[in-house]
Amino acid sequence: MKVIIAENYQDASKKAADIMEKIIREKPTCTIGLATGSSPVGMYQELSRRCKEEGLDFSKIHSVNLDEYVGLEPTHNQSYRYFMDSNLFDHINIDKANTYVAKGIGDVEENLKEFNEVLDKADIEIQVLGVGPDGHLGFNEPGPVLFDGAHKEILDETTIDANARFFASRDEVPRYAVTMGMGNIMRAKALLMIINGNKVDAATKLLMNDTIDPMCPATFMRLHRDATVVLEKKLALEIGYIKE
Ligand code: GLP
Fold first, then answer.
1. Fewer Cβ atoms within 10 Å of its own Cβ: the N or the C terminal residue of the chain?
2. Separation of 107 CA from ligand 1 center, angstroms?
């Protein structure tokens, strides 16, 4: 696993954007796997800028997203479809018909069937990842077993707590989500994780331990042949990954 230490969030966003840009320029018709959450927002801003100012071309790129809340309309301002449109797709020259975010409303089984069909066909060149404070990837919550394919998850109380900041009240946070499974994530040709915020526990388990632990799904990153983690110096110092 490659670890890139960034000076701050802005630097992390640029370094992550560099990795994405290289792939998009080399393979302008590829499929990229995208993530929501605050961690990749700066990278999305940087990619949007490079599209506008430096001709980074998304016109033939396809995308598939990690997950979506169950019960939120795509127009809901906390749905992940809305997040992707407002943080990235509305600012780049991607054809929205080529972007896929799983459906959060309607029949869950039907939606999962469609999600799995999309994933079976997609050959994801690089999968962007954040990490939940409990170590979740997408919405693959810690547990004794993890799932291979796309499935429905019951969100952990800690995830509901962490995501409550985006909703008017904790009660409004959906209790379920559909997510790519760990197998879908691991089958991407490359993984790019941006760790931002208070993720000491997950970062320690990922970077300072030698174990693969289903109670911290992020540790599965260690099994991938082409995985990159971008983290800020502050956090790297805090977990003892680097010394002053
Ligand atoms: C949500 C998403 C994850 C994301 C996590 C961390 O739970 N489902 O994919 O990684 O939030 O979010 P943040 O980057 O805001 O800390």
1. C
2. 24
